[in-house]
Each structure stands twice: as C-alpha cells, then as structure tokens.
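As a warm-up, study this chain.
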Amino acid sequence: MTKIALVNNGCAKNLVDSELMLGLLSENGYEITLDETDANIVVVNTCSFIHDAEKESVDSILELINEGKKVIVAGCLAQKYGKELKEAIPEISAMLGTTDFLEIAEVIKKIEKNNEYISNVSDKPNYNYPEKIERQQITVGSSSYIKIADGCNYNCGYCIIPKLRGKCHSRKIEDIVKEAKNLTDKGVGEIVLIAQDTTSYGIDLYGKNSLSALLKELDKIENIGRIRFMYAYPTNIDDELLDVINNSKHIVKYIDLPLQHSNSEVLRAMNRPVLDYRKLIQKMRKKVKGLAVRTSLIVGYPTETEEQFEELCDFVKEVKFDKLGVFEYSREKNTISYKLKPQIPARTKHARFKKLMQIQQKISKEINESYIGKTLPCIIEGVTDDGFVIARTEHDAPEVDGLVYIKTDKNVVPGDIENVKITSASEYDLYGEI
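Now compare it with the structure written out below.
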C-alpha cells in the first residue's frame, strides 16, 4: 500500500492547500502518514515569496530525495521555475502548479504505474476552491484558517504572488459560513480568515468589497468563538468595515494592515497606495475601541535613501504600532523592483532592519507593560513542557504575534477563553495567572 506524506512550506494559505490535498488523497483511499520516513511518496508544497523561503523548500526536496523518496513538488516553486527546477533536481518525480493541486491523486496514480516524470503546471494560474473536498487538518491548537479567496489584483513592486497565483478568486459567503460552522462544531475556538488580500474579498463575485457582509454572517454563528482576518489593504479600510468590527460580538479588535513603508516616493516605487497613513490609523483607532494595529514594513527597498528610512523610523515612533514585522528587501526576478537602481547593499539593509526593530521593541514593551494588573480574556493554546499554560489575547494572531504564559492549577482546555490577570511583561510576551 502506497503511503503518502506531505511537507508544507510557507504561509497559512499554503497550509490550507496542503490540507485540501490530504483530503483528496484520503478520499481516493491513500494512507496518509505524518512520518516522512515511513512514506513511499512525499508531496512538498513549496513557497517562493522570497529567496530564503525558496531555499527552505529546495532543502526539503533534496533531503527527501537523498532519503530515497519519490518527491512531488507542488505550489509556488513549481509554478515559478518549472523546467529550471527539474533540470537542477532531475530526481523530482512530478510537479504541480499553484492552482493544479486538485490533480494530486491522478498524478500519484501515474507515478505508481511508471517512473515517467509528470508536469502539471498551468501557464496562467486560475484558482478555484474545491468546496466538496473535506480538508484533513494538520494544524494543532485553538485556531483554524479559512481561505476566503486566492490570487491578487494588485501588482506591488516587490511581489511575485500575482504571477504565481493569478487574479483574485473569492469563495461564496454561504460556503465560507458553512465551513466556519463545521470548524466551530469541532471545537475550534478562533476562525482566522486569510487571502492574499482579504479586503478585496467578493469583488469578483458580488461586484464590490464584501468582507463586511461576510463578517456579519459569520458573527451570527451560534457558539462561534473569535473571528479574525489577516492581510488587509489600506485603501479598502472603510467606515462600514470599522463599524462591523466595533459592533461585533466575536470579531477581535485587531487589524493586520501591511503598509510596507511611509515615505511617498518609496511607496510609489513599490507601486503601493500613497496615503496619509497617520490619519488612516487615527481614524481606525477612533472608530474601533481598543483596536490593536499590526503592520509589516520593508527596509532597504531599491532607491530608499537614508533620509527616507529615517522618516520611516519617525513614523513608527509616532504611530506606535501594537504589532510590527520588519523585513529586509529580497530581490526577486520578474518583479518591478528587480531592475530598480540603486539596489541597497545587504549590510545597509540589515543595519536598517536592526534599528527599526530596536525602536519597535521599546514601543512593544511599553504597550505590554500597560497590561500589567489588568485582566484579559485569553484563548488557551496548550501547555509547555515546564508546566506553563500558553494562551493569546485578542490582540495576538496565531504564529505571528506574542503569547501569554500562565501559571495556574486550573484544568484548562485548548480553544476555551479564560480571564487572565497579567502580572509581568517582556518586549513581545505577557505573563499572568488564572
């Protein structure tokens, strides 16, 4: 009997595709194992967003081939490189593009019959979510992701995703609500909505941004815990969306708003919206009581001057983001920024990264220390080896933000929400007791 294992690299959106592939394989009678050493065939779902992610995926492929496994490469790396990757690693058994993963069972059947290489990579990615497939979840914890759309209609200067994923394709509201109900019935405490750009959800189906309409329907689900959405686009943050968040029973007071920079010239070079971001964030915080704002920023983008970087530092000091991720620019072929000049030296990029992170560490510690003495509702994640209960506040998204470490003798259940008194804080994490 053929045993199949799957290695997932990259983002939560990739994770959902991996879980759909496992669902397809299960429906076709294949035995799934989480132990790669016990598998005959291993599917590697790859990431190609930046060079480091590509390296991680390639390392996974090479390691498995060296162990004698038949390897199927799926996802972004196959979509981006195709023939080049096969030439570099001829032992690869098959490739599936980003929107071709529904063929996984057929590809494996062919591999079982003969040793011929199989390539199934669409020239133009066109993502359609397979609603009839039941995901085989490999995530552990209190939260679960729901992919509400895939693909992107923007063309940011640093980003290859539209070429790898195609245009935005949304799922119907009723299908998403049905999945959320199923997850809630299984005991999932927090639903996390994801897409390349969640705030463009529904434009292709309903002719307008429909995230607010979706959130309203999800908020009606009986027994649903928390609802969170990630990856918002700044021009799509409107009054209706803010009002829905503010008035909801279940939507967390948290917005993930990747801005990438604050300087208007750098934003134009990035092909990003040039807005008064200070004014936007002030409005967001005014309309949503207790809102936490997360952003991500890129330093060392081609043409970024020292003065423009210092402007970004001043912006971060003034706005005081609750959560902040900083990334050094990664030069990727087939993006607008690849040919931009001047490119910034690696040493300069890293120095800018360190300086901005040091600024944010002070801000983050001040914000966290403001919670000391307060009691916060926290969703339980699990228990550490040394006996601490791990949890998250509503202001902390899974995998990207901080945690709450709790001392308690109380028996707690992952997914439940407990009131935790915060007793101390570090730059990124909180400590408390029940």
